[in-house]
Amino acid sequence: MKAMKRSTLATLINATLFSAVAGTSFSALAEEEQAKSNQLEVIQITARKRVENAQEVPVSVSALQGDNLNAYSSAGMDIRFMNAKIPSLSVESSFGRTFPRFYVRGLGNTDFDLNASQPVSLVVDEVVQENPILKGFPVFDIARIEVLRGPQGTLFGRNTPAGLVKFDTVKPSQEFDGYAALSYGSRGAVDFEGAVGGSVTDRLSTRISALWQEQEDYIDVKAPGFEQNDVLGGYSEQAVRLQFLYEGDDFTGLLNYHYRDLDGRPIAFRANLIEAGSNNINPLYDNDVVYHDAASRSTQQVETQGLSLKLEWDLPEHTVTSITAWESAEIYSRADVDGGYGANLDFVGYQGPGLIPFASETADVIPDHNQYTQELRLSSNFSGDYNYQVGLFLYEEDLTIESYSFDTFAYDQGLGQYGAQNGYAYQDQDTSAWAIFGSFDYTVSDDLKVTAGLRYSDDEKEFYAKRTKNPTPWNGSPDVLDDTANPSDSHVSWDLSATYKLTDDVNLFGRIANGFRAPSVQGRILFGDEVTVAESETTNSIEAGIKSDVLDGQGRVNATVFYYQMDDQQLTAVGGGANFNRLINTDKTTGYGFELDTEWVLTDELNATFNLSYNNTELEDDSLAVAVCAQCTVTDPTYMVNGANGPEARAILDGNSLPHAPEWIANATLRYTKELEGGEFFVYGDMSYRSEIDFFLYKSVEFEGEALFETGLRTGYLWFSGDNEYEVSAFVRNLFDEQVVIGGVDFNNNTGMLNEARFIGAEFKVKFF
Asked: Signal peptide location in the record (predicted)?
């Protein structure tokens, strides 16, 4: 590992120095540079709510689009395909194709409750997707994905102290165009997506985009007495997006409606997947095998929809923008969480695999959810050295959550099946927030530009939780329990950044920023006995970097170094003694590292990218301790306390890294194209790597996830006929069928989840103009 670190740092230093020298050497060749046809394209982003060249923005930002985006999202992948595909970004989920959890520079949230807040925000078409179920909307007909690293509180507001993931869909235009793509692959998976758009009148255009994905159940149940083939792993998903764009002389209006319907299975939990005393995978398991006693009842049904209206007025020296939006989500997710069979059935005389202390079959439901947002901005368009944008943001969310526990072997007369309800809890949360913000740009000289931003945020919650039936009476808690919480806070976020043009091809930048996450509430008291509240967290971050175009425009090297300190970080103590989350605050968290983004035109036929990041995170709080796993080997220092069921161990967290925070992330792509008569042959390869991770706040042998290395390959032929472009291709994801435990459940046994197995498929695509 030390050799790897030295080599990586040397690569970064050499690349940075080379980019500066090369940029200086070749800047005099501007005319020849423009004449070349094999240069890298200019990447336009909207990281600061206006269209800018990514190379000139004083923010550590990466964009995913074009061939990279198409290849990564092959095989009907959900949003988790982004994991380790961008420096300092990881994505995981314990729900499967919904409820993704994002981590940037090691900062994220492992909370699995349906009101969990995250320090990484997701914004789609300029509308925040706050509830975790909204974040799982399928990725299709996307123009660009941007990942902004570091606090983004000034322009994007609440819950962005770690960063922001931003999706921009393809918008309607007056030009008629569209595409259709159909693929078939492993496990009977069918994936169709398409879009068509064009003018309705000379002022009005429209675009409709659609997705349909299906995969057959392929996971077999091998629990004695419950044997059944092809029970889990399948899904059927449909989504649609309809947009109308009106373009007047000095006014535009964009209406966006989107809808998603998912009927599938939750992620497969596997009891004692991890061998005790190690983090090896139990040889009883393959990717298509479980040992559940409640698999037949496992289901996940999600329905989300939203409507937004963006209005924009162009005045002589200003632009006024209004974005009004509504989002809604519903989910019913029921799973065999213990992942095994026969718990507590002494009269049957069996259980497994391994020890199953107690059965856990639960369901979590959002029957009602509504989110309303309103943003109003005024942006100047002065021709001089000074410009600004100021705005107002309003946010309202109403959320109801229900949680159920089931007795696996009790018969439900009403439903006519086993799995009778034996526990019920209810949560209701109303959130109100508002903010005013401003960002101010000043051109000091031809080479130096500075930006300052300020935002005042006010956030408050009203929360109520009640349990009317206790599924675990042996823990001494009462059947009926209710509690409330009403946290509120306000905060001033800020940032200051500068860009200095060293040469025509090399920009240096620096940025200091402050971010804020409002108080959070955790009240899933189905198995717990208290509502916990985490106070606000704040982040101070400093970063500096270089953005350079090199080799006469045929290379691009961007590098950033950063340091941050987060005060009162909100953490989730997952599991421990019960299927329950507790929110805590740590005194201080520090992080530092670097990010490297590069692109290369190697030859007329060969293009490549290479990206790398290093993140070191550390908890600094000598009084912070949490409950630990039931059966694993804890490596942190521990001490004992008196719990409800006797002595319980507590792990001291001081000095630990954050959960799901890999130190190293690397990815690379290579595209080869060869022009043939009438068309083009191509081969596209990619790889991604993330180093070891801890699943929980404490460290243990079993719940340290091994490094994950995945590769993909796509090859095909592209040709034109008439006005259409056609493509036929074959692809494979996870080429070497790397199998790694990617998450765990610690309250019962050494339960874990596996990454996606190898997927092979073929696709036919047509673009029409």
From this structure: 1-30
Q: Which of 267, 262, 578 is nearest to 423 (CA)?
A: 578
Q: Which residue has the tokens 């599991």?
A: 575
What is the rounded average pLDDT for all residues in the chain?
Answer: 90
Q: What is the DSSP string of 445-510?
A: SSSEEEEEEEEEEEEEEEEEEEEEE-S-GGG---SSEEEEE--EEEEEEEEEEEEEESSSSEEEEE
Residue 344 pLDDT class (50, 70, 90 cuts): low
Question: Of 264, 254, 240, which is closest to residue 140 (Cα–Cα)?
Answer: 240
Mean predicted confidence (pLDDT) in 674-697: 95
Instruction: Please report the beta strands in 518-580, taking only residues with DSSP state E, as ranges in sequence order.
Output: 520-522, 532-534, 537-550, 555-574
CB 341 within 8 A of CB 223: yes
pLDDT at 46: 87
- Integer Cα distance of 541 and 543 in angstroms: 7
Cα 765 to the center of its chain, rounded Å: 27
Residue 555: strand pairing partners? 550, 600
At 28, list the tokens: 């005099």
Provide the β-strand partners of residue 688: 667, 710
Helix ranges (DSSP H) in 391-455 = none
Q: What is the pLDDT of residues 108-157, one digit of tens each?
A: 999 989 999 999 999 999 999 999 999 999 999 999 999 999 999 899 87
pTM for the model stands at: 0.92
Phi, psi values for residue 636, rounded to 5°: -75, 160
Q: Which of 759, 152, 695, 178 is nearest to 451 (CA)?
A: 152
Beta bridge partners of 436: 392, 456
Helices (H) and strands (E) in the chain, counts: 4, 44
DSSP-derived pairing of the beta strands 219-221 and 289-290: parallel
- Residues 78/685, Cβ–Cβ less than 8 Å: no
Structure-block tokens of residue 11: 């690569």
In this prediction, residues 312-332 reach a mean pLDDT of 97
Smallest CA-to-CA distance from 516 within 585, 569, 450 is with 569
Place of tokens 């899904």: 235
- Residue position matching structure tokens 């368009």: 381
Indicate the pairing of strand 664-676 with strand 625-627.
unpaired
Task: Give CA–CA dist 426/365, Å, rounded.
Answer: 10
As to burial, measured by CB atoms within 10 angstroms (0-12 exposed, 13-18 middle, 19+ buried), residue 529 is middle
Q: What is the DSSP letter of 385?
A: S
DSSP secondary structure, 43-66, as one string = PEE-TTSS-EEGGG-SSEEEEE-H
> What pLDDT, in 10s, does the model give residues 190-229?
999 999 999 999 999 999 999 999 999 999 999 998 999 9
Label residues 533-563 b or e (16+ Cβ within 10 Å = b): bbbbbbbbbebbbbbbbbbbbbbbbbbbbbe
| Torsion angle of C-alpha atoms 503, 504, 506, 510, degrees rounded to 10 | 80
**Cβ atoms 688, 756 nearer than 8 A:** no
Question: In this predicted structure, what is the pLDDT of residue 16?
Answer: 39
16 or 762: which leads in pLDDT: 762
Q: What value does the mean pLDDT take over residues 88-117?
A: 93
Average confidence (pLDDT) over 492-496 = 96
Q: Is the pLDDT of residue 607 over 70?
A: yes
Provide the residue type at 70 as one letter. N
Environment class of 35 (CB within 10 Å of its CB; exposed 0-12, middle 13-18, buried 19+) = exposed
Strand-pair category, 537-550 with 506-517: antiparallel
CA distance 425 to 419: 17
Cα separation values, 629 from 338, 574, 575, 685, 751, Å: 13, 10, 7, 40, 11
Cis peptide before 353 (omega within 30 of 0): yes
The terminus-to-terminus CA distance of the chain in angstroms comes to 51
CA dist 297 → 211, 291, 300, 526, 748 (Å): 27, 14, 10, 20, 20
What average pLDDT does the segment 164-187 reach? Answer: 96
